[in-house]
Every structure is written in C-alpha cells, then in structure tokens.
Please model this.
Amino acid sequence: MDTIINNASGRVLDITRLVGRAGRVLTGVDRVELAYLRRFLADDVPCYFIARTSYGYVLLDRSGGQSILRATLKGEWGQSDLLSRLRFKMPKRVQAAQSFVRKHRVARCGRSRLALMLSEHLPKGVDLYIVGHTNLEFEFVSAFKLSVDARVHVMIHDTIPLDYPEVQRPQTVTDFNRQLRVVSEEADRVIAVSKVTNDSLTPHLQRHGRVPPIIVAHPGIDPVMPRYAEIPPDLDLSRPYFVTVGTIEPRKYHSLLLEVWESLDTEERPLLLICGNRGWLNQTVFEALDRGVPDVIEVPDLSDSALAAVVHGSKGMLFPSIAEGFGMPPIEAAALGTPVVCADLPVYRETLGDRIVYLDPQDNYSWRETVNELKTNEDGERVAYVSLPKWDDHFAAVLGVATASLES
Model:
C-alpha cells in the first residue's frame, strides 16, 4: 500500500545543524538542510522546525522557519541573549543563532520533556526529516514516535566513517555506528544520496538487524553565478592556476597534490588554490602548508559566488578524494565548463559518466602529466558539459510516493 507524503498531517525538519553553522560558509550537508527548509516553507503542508540548543529543544512553526531562512541567507542573527552569553565557551555566532531560535519559538523544553512538548504542539502522524545527524539519537527519535506517532525519514550522505575509519577521528566512527543503529531500529525510511551510498549502507544496516526501506535521490545543486568582483583583491590570479575544493582532511588526499606541485617544473609551475578550511588528522599536510609549498595557496571561506568564479577561471579542478558519498564540487565545476580531474570513484561514474578525466590517486606521474597538459589549454569560452541535478527531481522522489508497509 502506498501513501502520498504530501497528504501528511505535517512535516518537521531538524535544523540543529543549520543553527550550529550560523555565520559560516555552508558546506554540502548544510546546503541540503537549507534546501529542505526552503521546500517545506514553499509547500502548503503544515511545517514545523526543531533545534537543539544548550538549554534543550526549541520548536518553531512556519513563521519561525521563515525567520530562520532569512537569517541564514543574510547572515543576520541579531544579538545574543543572557542565556547564550552564559555559555561563554560557545562561538559568538552560535550564541546569537541559539538566541534567535528561542526568540522565534512556539515552545521550548528541557531534554527530558521533549515528548510532552511535541504532544502539546504537533498533530498526530507528522513526518520527521533528519538531514543532518546532530539529533540522530534514540532519545530524540523515540520522543517523536511515542508522542505523535511520527514517521521518521533519515538522509544518509555516505558511510565513510565505517568504510574508512583510518581517516576519521575514533569518536566519529563510534558515533556514526551508533547512529546507524538508530536508523536500523527506528527509521521508517532512509534517503540515500546516491546508488553508491545505498549499496554501501545496506550491509551496515544488516549488521544492526533491520534494513528500512531505502530510496535513492540525488540532492539538487543550486546554480551559482560566478562573481569575479567577490574574489579577494589580494589574490592574484593573473597566472594559470588549478583549484581543489573541500575540507583539508585525509580522504581528500591533498598530500598527493602537494607532492605533484613540488615535482613540477619551477619555471612553468601554475598556482594551486586549496579552497577549504583545515579539518582533522592531517598534521603532515598542515605542517607542509605552514612551511610553505611553492605556488600553493590556501583560500578558505570564499563566498559561493567567489568560489564559483575561482573555479570558472581555473585551468581545471583537481579532486583526488579517495571516498565520496555524492561529492558536489566536481559536478559544480563541470556545470561551469571547467575541466575536472578526479580519482576514479564509482559515485562519479554514477553522476558524471565519462565526461571527466579519471586518474588513480596513487599514480603521481599521471596527475603531474595531466596538470602539465591542461595548463597549456587555451582559455576559450566555458560551456557546461553536465546539467546540475535539480531539487524538484529530488523532492519528487522524497515527497511523492513512499512505501507505507514498513518492514520489521
């Protein structure tokens, strides 16, 4: 038997991750959560939003959600209240954001009273969507199920913490394994962002005893207009350059690119722009960058439009990441007409087919020769050679028809 999700009594979106990222450039998962916020506000179905703060949970209605959307897009969260200021170790931007959600709430409660708050303010049979995993806990999910008989939909972006534990913090591996146990026991449906994620997820869920119904829905990617005027004025891009985009963490394999750059002819070496913030477990790369690698520049915290301009004007995007669940940057680069060179991952065969260059991330020679070849290409008009996946297609799958007969 099928049920139309659009006929639900209401939708609830966990926006804890967005609130926690206030004031920062939004990355992949943040942008997905933002897209869900926009869509729920645009539809006629009753919608609610919940965030966990330092003082418990805050529930917002449609009006509150609209305020959150405006604050996220404008980066204007106002001043921190006294409660937030008492959390003096919390970043000021998060202090302001948590104050903001409390100001626009319809209800708030301590962690132990969540079920009571939900039963007083939500209709029965709502659909809870968890896109980020901040609240993917038994306590949180069970409160929704027991109080308002909610159906729980969880998005899984990848299974990298379990597939590549050596490039993760130990706590991340432990937390993710616990979250998948919650998914196995409590989720009514799983949304996988790619077939690759679906295929890797299933055996992990089987270990926990139950595999909920899974749908595959590629996330949409909003087009961004390159704005060269937003590129920092001290960033001189008059020379040929390449770009890589993403957090500087082990699986992104920046170490390969640093080795390639050190091996290039010093007189004709292009620039390499590393666009992303420093992450974790990558001390060797951090130390190399701190010492200085010739013609390699870190460029964190670019606006979306500035980043699009940097990518658009480059000789190519280099993406030697050894694991991705979906991976937006190469798709975005291809949609700008920029040549893309990637590690040969199944997810890019799924999303980009044979339209980019695939190289073995262990083959430094091939990466060096490809850079030498691309740097001599004439800079003609850039023409997109892939289409960006559309959010309408994603939501047609997610909010259209879902299986109601749930396996146990």
About this structure: Residues 401-408 have pLDDT under 50 and may be disordered. The domain at 228-374 is CATH 3.40.50.2000 (Rossmann fold). The radius of gyration is 22 Å. The chain has two domains: 2-220+390-403, 228-374.
